[in-house]
Each structure stands twice: as structure tokens, then as C-alpha cells.
Amino acid sequence: MLIAEDFLLLAVDDETGKTANVDNLGVRLAGALLADLAAANKTLMRGAPEAGATKEEREKAGDATILVTDNAPTGHVALDAALQAALDAPDAPARKIVEAVSENAEENLLAALVERGILEKEESKLFRMLPVTRWPAADSSHETALRATLTKVLVDGAEPDERTATLISLLHGSGLIGGLVGKDQRKAAQDRAEEIAGSEWGVATVATQVAIAATVATVATVGVAAAAFILLSNDADKAADTTSPAAAEPAEAPVS
Q1: What's the mean per-residue pLDDT of the chain?
Q2: Which of 41, 221, 224, 227 is deepest in the core (most CB within 10 A)?
Q3: Could you tell me the fold of the domain covering 3-237?
Q4: Residues 6+ positions from 254 with CB-CB distance below 8 Å
Q5: Residue 135: how many CB atoms within 10 A of its CB?
Q6: 3-class DSSP assignment, residue 243
Q7: DSSP secondary structure letter of residue 244
Q8: Which of 51, 82, 93, 67 is nearest to 206 (CA)?
């Protein structure tokens, strides 16, 4: 199982097959795929901070360049798409690769999970018109074990291995941490996730850490862009309202 697949399984409800409302899910999955490439020894980094780098140095990790060291296909549709994105833009900063991979990351990962019998694909129509696709669980055994491992780390204080620390770092800030534990344990679990996300540099490989840093940087960039778009749209709507003929006419006095 890929780290990206673990992330997506936690985001999809086993019974309803609906995906949770995760901020920039595609970007986070893309970062996870880059971490998977690093774990598979497919990539190295140029211009990346060294292990033990300061927080300020780590924030610049998204500017590092991804070097593909093994371009042989893996046979996994999502991982190979991420590998090809890195090959297609050899001089692009890591955050740009994250953006490129994010376009099809969720679709490719869902297809892979369905092919292996972990999820099912159910298609229907809402009000007999609007197509709806859901992805309920077909085999929850892996996710059940994954949730148990994450609970041990986030609640019981167990030390995570590199893979688990990487997954938690990617989950941090996604809104999914709280759903892994009970209501009374959410605050402690979120604090523990923040601790791991802030201290894992030097535990995982530099390539994996750059994938995480690039993901965080891209989520922030996309969030700012989306907010700016909403503000501009609202301003345009207000301008349209004030310049329309209806808006220019005085309102009728209320009838007494």
C-alpha cells in the first residue's frame, strides 16, 4: 500500500463511499505520492535543506528540484503518473510538481484501490439526472489496522516509524486527525500530530521531507489563490449590482 492510498482511505467513508471535505485533497495526495516515490528510491533532491534544518530553512524546501534516479515504471497508475510529471519538468521546483500531480491524483488512486478490491465503485443518479459516484469499502482490513497504528501513536504516545510519521505529517492540517479518535481525545491527537509534523525532519529522508514541505507550501498557495478569487468574485458581483438598471432605481416605499 502507498502512503497516498492510506491517506485516501482515511478520507473516504467506508459505508457511504463519500469523500470527506478535505482542504486541497488533491494537493495532499500529490505530496504523498512524491513521498512514495522517494520511499521507492525513485527520486533524490537538489537544493534541499539538510537533515536538522531550521523551520525557516524547511519552509524553502518547496523550491528544491526533484531528480528522477530511476524512471522504470512501477506498474501503479498513480505512482507512474507522478513519476512522469517529475520527468516532464526536470527543472521545476517541487511545489510545481505537486500541483501537476494533484490534477489526477485522486482519480488515479481511486482506480487503483478499486482494481485491487479494496474499494467498490458505485454509480447512480441524483434526482434521476445528476450522476453520483461513491466508493464504499469492499475490504476494510488494511484500514482497520492502519487506524489502530495511528491511534497508538496519536493517543498512546507510541513512537512512529518513518512511514507513519510521514503519513501523520501529511494528515496534519487536513481535518482528518479528529476522525481517527474519539471526541475526548481529539485535542490530544491533534497536538501530537502537530508535534510529529514539526519534528520529523531528519527522521525521514530529505526527499520525503521535501515532498511534505512542498505539499504544505502548495496548500497555502492554493488557499490564498482561492481566497483571492472569492474576494474578486464578490467585488465583481457587488459592482454588477450597483451598475445594473434595477440597482440604480430607487426602491419603492413600503406600503403602509
Answers
A1: 82
A2: 221
A3: yeast vps74-n-term truncation variant fold (1.10.3630)
A4: none
A5: 22
A6: helix
A7: S
A8: 51
Q: pTM of the prediction?
A: 0.82
Distance CA 172, CA 193 (A): 6
64-120 pLDDT, tens digit each: 899 999 999 999 999 999 999 999 998 899 889 999 999 999 999 999 999 999 999
DSSP letter string over 185-221?
Answer: GHHHHHHHHHHHHHH-BTTB-HHHHHHHHHHHHHHHH
Count CA atoms closer than 13 A to 76's CA, side-chain side: 20
Domain boundaries, the chain: 3-237
Neighbouring CB atoms inside 10 A of 146's CB total 19
177-215: per-residue pLDDT in tens? 988 988 899 999 999 998 888 775 555 666 787 788 778
Q: What is the C-alpha to C-alpha distance for residues 216 and 233, in angstroms, rounded to an integer?
A: 26
- Residues 243 and 54: their CA atoms lie apart, in Å, by 52
Q: Which residues lie closer than 8 Å to 43 by C-beta, 6 or more apart? A: 34, 37, 66, 67, 68, 69, 86, 207
- Taking alpha carbons only, the member of 224, 216, 226, 223 closest to residue 31 is 216
